[in-house]
Amino acid sequence: MAKVGIPHALAYYLYYPFWKTFFEKLGHEVVVSTPTTRAILDRGVEETVNDACIPIKIYHGHVASLIDQVDYIFCPRLISVRRHGDFGTETFCPKFLGLPDLIRLTFTGAPPIIDTPIDINQLESKPKSKKDKKRKPAEIMEAACVETGDRLGNSITQSRAAYQKAAQVHQRFLTLLEQGKLPPEAIDILFPPENPISYELENPEFNLAVVGYPYAIYDHYINVGLLNILHKENIKVYTQDTLSDKILNQEASELPKSMFWYFSNRAVYGALYYMKKGYIDGIVHITAFACGPDSMVDRLLEIEARRRGKPYLPISIDEHTGESGVRTRVEAFVDMLRYRRDKK
Ligand code: SF4
Fold first, then answer.
1. Mean pLDDT across the stretch 223-234?
2. Which residue's alpha carbon is nearest to atom 7 within ligand 1?
3. Which pTM was predicted?
4. Candidates 12, 14, 78, 95: which one to mutate for ligand 1, based on the most atoms within 8 Å of Cβ?
5. How is domain 203-343 classified at the CATH fold level?
6. Which long-range contacts (CB under 8 A, 24 or more apart) does 114-117 make?
């Protein structure tokens, strides 16, 4: 049995239930780093190249916190996780693509990094016709699991069985999200801790769509507790992660062109969907400082929100973001929503 470390950052928020189930079914122990703290952030800033975006710095901090506790660090090379149909090529951003190399080069004394590539758009290795055929996503994920299990000394049969179980749990996770649970709530429902997170509200005063990268929306340290601030203000939060792929693809099909990056596309499609909904009172976009893709996403959403008359609040996060600054901006935004409502 090995101890496998999963950093509580980046893809954790959408894929933790899958990988936790997979490793545990194989008989390994999963060690997750704690939610982000000042010490984790400081360590990440110290270890990472200066021009990295804040989420990548935080990821380094989480890896550093796991190094002495585990036998392996799980850092898959995320290339693509979604068939993007006719809407163009879509991958994770370049920083995700090179993440395992970055981690390996930064932490030279670290335990082995399990960097299984995940590329749902992989072609069949021997295309049967002249036209390249893509393998089925489930087949690709199963093969990735077999490769991961092999690194840990598990057999193909064991890894396939663990994959089946992980896929079932992932499906339950997606169902919870589509029922309106945010990822941290859904994770706590699947693996109940002592004090589970809940953002339930009886009679919310407003409904806001909070869009952006999951690792910016759900990392309470880096966004200085934005979701809690909104919850205390009696505001219900919707995010792109509570929308099904079908809805996101529908939004994609209505755009003349999509961007290349998976998480940026999800934020854009989710925001455009919510901008059309009467029950959504406004859009909050959490942007990450030094993120190249976000400079385009933010401008696009600002233009679309103005065109559709939807109140829009961008909040940029970096290592110096302070709670009072975010709280003041949120409170001013909510005051403006009240003014608009009362004027009607
Ligand atoms: S999408 Fe932006 S914030 Fe996310 S890892 Fe890439 S550069 Fe960083």
1. 93
2. 291
3. 0.93
4. 95
5. Rossmann fold (3.40.50)
6. 114/4, 114/72, 114/73, 114/74, 114/75, 114/76, 114/148, 114/151, 114/152, 115/75, 115/76, 115/77, 116/76, 116/77, 116/144, 116/147, 116/148, 116/151, 117/76, 117/77, 117/79, 117/144
